[in-house]
Design brief:
Elements: H1 11-15, E1 23-25, H2 28-37, E2 41-46, H3 51-61, H4 64-73, E3 75-80, H5 85-99, E4 106-110, E5 116-120, H6 134-167, H7 180-193, H8 210-223, H9 226-241, E6 255-256, E7 264-265, E8 268-269, H10 270-287, H11 290-306, E9 317-318, E10 321-323, E11 332-334, H12 342-348, H13 352-360, H14 389-396, H15 400-418, E12 426-427, E13 430-431, H16 432-448, H17 452-469, E14 470-471, E15 476-482, E16 485-489, H18 492-509, H19 512-529, H20 562-577, H21 580-592, H22 594-599, H23 605-615, E17 619-624, H24 630-639, E18 647-652, H25 655-664, E19 679-684, E20 687-688, H26 695-702
Parallel strand pairs: 1-3, 2-3, 17-18
Antiparallel strand pairs: 2-4, 4-5, 6-7, 8-9, 9-12, 10-11, 13-15, 14-15, 15-16, 17-19, 19-20
Helix pairs in contact: 4-6, 7-8, 8-9, 8-10, 8-23, 10-11, 10-16, 13-15, 14-15, 16-17, 16-18, 17-18, 18-19, 18-20, 20-21, 20-23, 24-26
Length: 706
């Protein structure tokens, strides 16, 4: 029989809708039951493409005996961390503080007042490997609740109060400035942990963390420090070579379990695609090396092919696990959809092309994964770039062009054959924040690669979010859309990342509506999440009574934090509009996090990138000319051939738009061009160089960075 999760929209909750556990979604019905029956709450948090979440479900939540323990002694609640990052952050803070680590599935025991008193991540069903079993823990906690409830409740209340105090972030009375020393200190931390052989920072497992690359490239742009750029470029090159990059279908898997980006954890997340595409595009702008552009194109092609809703929004993720044998669909393995035996390749690809392909992508007859503790890759191969096209041509005594054509055809055949396999589970919910990251990437891709379809996809996705997730009358935003339903009030991440996307879209396509909405979203974010006295932003609003505390999330991990993005938005909008309140809010937030930037810069690389903007004397680039004219287009194309990070871009087209821009910055009133012509102004604090009309002259102005 289905449980209460059957009526939910979250793919993760629906995966558990037929468990024998009497699950509740997060909400008052569950809380009221816990209070009425004086039962503790068991909270399980995960997401639909989480490997160990699937394992714990099979082992424990589908186990009738364990389900009976949960149903007898607890009120059990399931939360999709991607739908409710606010709930996830609060209890992950507790788990990390009390256990020293965190992850998913997250398992937390709460009082009926939602205060945590015990937690962890994955638990095996029975005691093993020195780890207590889930059934045993359930029994011990239930007994402790019966015999020592008052002490547990008091302890939980104290823990929440301590977490509140520990999590407080506020501006000091006399904050230290954002200066060269702070930013250089951030660079030195990444310099010390950089792997100069295979890129990345630290050892295995390796996560991409594009925010680090963003900071390093901006640090290079301001200082000319080649070491910072080389670290970013090597990391991008090595990631692109590895098995973490889907060599056939494009797009990146979540992370690499080894130090050389070879063996991935095979889930694919939308937020990785958006951020990595942007990083590769920026590397292309800096170097003009086609390989970086090619990797970005492959990411875009994957997202547009496999991760796009019919109305233009982008889906969230694809699972790591997939069906091994179509005749046994219940049996799944890590990466089964993506891996190959050498014989499979030879059966699908005719003649020497198969051998060339195998040489290029490291395919071995017995499989190419030496370390395989779970025996998931026996006799199979993870494709990675073991040899270049030129090295492969030399090995086979052929011309590189001939080899490239043969390998391209082999790739086409294998991708088509892979398409006949059972695809991994698709999490088809559409999240505002993650879509914002993808829109930003596609907007830049359309401009930097001069590829209209990427820019069009960015605009279409933005219009989808505006139509489905934005309430113009209330000025509020929703977080999640699935199967015709938009729901869940937006969090700081949603407001900030959509505002950033609209700014990026405006700066590449110059629809004034997008700029206006970015301003409205930022104003609403200040209203809902801003801390006027302490500086910075809370991740969630004040209206949800179920949250035992409000956090100011600042960790730039798999995604940039809402605070980091909001600060950069404020800095950009202050430069565009001249509004002192935006500049003051940015300065207050930077002051609030200044100590964290100094003591733990590795945790806040995107905020370091925002600090780079604040510290760099950003430029205003104004192009006077009709947005759709060829002359304006030539100047815009030239701009996006180059990496110019610390700037804002405005197009003063017709009289109406110029007047609206001039209301913010009066200097724009005099910036005009003859019909059919265009002029570019490069300014600092609207003290401008003489305008230029030729792209080559414009290029000289925008490259004066150091």
């Amino acid at each position: 029989m289905p449980n209460r999760l059957a009526g939910e929209k979250s793919p993760y909750l629906l995966q558990h809708a037929h468990n024998p556990v009497d699950w509740y979604p997060w909400g008052e019905e569950a809380f009221a039951k816990a209070r009425a029956y004086e039962k503790p709450i068991f909270l399980s948090v995960g997401y639909s493409t989480c490997h160990w979440c699937h394992v714990m479900e099979r082992e424990s939540f589908e186990n009738e005996r364990i389900a009976a323990l949960l149903n007898r002694d607890y009120v059990s609640i399931k939360v999709d961390r991607e739908e409710r990052p606010d709930v996830d952050r609060i209890y992950m803070t507790f788990v990390q503080a009390t256990s020293g680590s965190g992850g998913w599935p997250m398992s937390v025991w709460l009082t009926p007042e939602l205060e945590p008193f015990f937690g962890g991540t994955y638990f095996p069903p029975e005691n093993r490997y020195g780890q207590p079993g889930f059934a045993s823990i359930l029994g011990q906690i239930a007994e402790a609740w019966r015999t020592n409830r008052a002490r547990i409740v008091e302890s939980a209340r104290d823990v929440v109060e301590q977490l509140r105090k520990h999590s407080e972030v506020a501006s000091p009375a006399h904050p230290a400035p954002i200066d060269d020393a702070l930013l250089d200190g951030g660079f030195q931390v990444f310099r010390r942990t950089f792997d100069s052989h295979t890129g990345g920072f630290g050892g295995a497992p390796k996560f991409p963390r594009p925010s680090v690359l963003y900071f390093l490239m901006r640090f290079y742009a301001r200082t000319g420090n080649r070491e910072a750029l080389d670290a970013a470029l090597l990391t991008l090159r090595e990631m692109a070579k590895g098995g973490m990059n889907d060599q056939l279908g494009g797009g990146f898997h979540r992370y690499s379990v080894d130090e050389r980006w070879f063996v991935p954890h095979f889930e694919k997340m939308l937020y990785d695609q958006g951020q990595l595409a942007t990083a590769y595009l920026e590397a292309f702008q800096i170097t003009r090396e086609p390989a970086y552009a090619a990797t970005a194109r492959r990411i875009f092609d994957y997202v547009l092919r496999d991760m796009t809703d019919g109305d233009g929004g982008f889906f969230s993720a694809e699972d790591a696990d997939s069906v091994i044998d179509p005749d046994a669909p219940a049996v799944k393995g890590e990466g089964a959809f993506y891996i190959w035996s050498a014989d499979e390749i030879r059966a699908l690809v005719p003649g020497p092309a198969a051998e060339m392909f195998c040489h290029r992508y490291g395919v071995a007859d017995g499989g190419n994964v030496a370390s395989d503790p779970h025996l998931e890759f026996t006799g199979r191969n993870i494709l990675y770039q073991a040899a270049t096209i030129e090295e492969t041509a030399e090995a086979f005594g052929r011309e590189p062009g001939e080899v490239r054509a043969a390998i391209d055809e082999a790739s086409r055949l294998l991708l088509a054959a892979r398409g006949e396999r059972v695809r991994p589970h698709l999490d088809d919910k559409i999240l505002t924040s993650w879509n914002g990251l993808m829109i930003s990437a596609l907007a830049l891709g359309g401009a930097a690669l001069r590829e209209l379809r990427y820019g069009k996809a960015a605009r279409r996705a933005a219009e989808f979010l505006i139509a489905r997730m934005w309430d113009p009358e209330a000025g509020t935003l929703l977080r999640r859309y699935r199967q015709g339903e938009a729901a869940i009030p937006g969090f700081l991440d949603d407001y900030a990342l959509l505002a950033q996307a609209l700014l990026d879209l405006y700066e590449t396509q110059f629809d004034f509506r997008h700029l206006e909405l970015a301003i409205r979203l930022t104003e609403k974010a200040i209203e809902l999440f801003g801390d006027a006295s302490g500086g910075g932003f809370f991740s969630s609003g004040a209206s949800d009574a179920s949250l035992v505390m409000r956090l100011k999330e600042d960790y730039d991990g798999a995604e940039p934090s809402g605070n980091s993005v909001a600060v950069l938005n404020l800095l950009r909008l202050a430069r565009i509009t001249g509004r002192g309140d935006f500049g003051a809010a940015a300065a207050s937030a930077l002051a609030a996090f200044r100590q964290r930037l100094s003591l733990a810069p590795a945790a806040l690389p995107y905020l370091l990138a925002a600090a780079e903007f604040a510290h760099s004397q950003p430029r205003e680039i104004v192009i006077a000319g009709a947005a759709e004219s060829a002359a304006t287009g030539a100047l815009v194309d030239e701009l996006y051939r180059h990496f110019v990070p610390n700037r804002v871009v405005l197009v003063a087209g017709d009289e109406t738009v110029r007047a609206r821009l001039a209301a913010w910055n009066p200097a724009i009133a005099s910036m005009a061009a003859d019909p059919g012509a265009a002029k570019a102004y490069v300014c600092r604090n609207f003290a401008c160089e003489l305008p230029v009309s030729e792209p080559a002259e414009f290029a000289k102005l925008i490259q004066l960075q150091f």
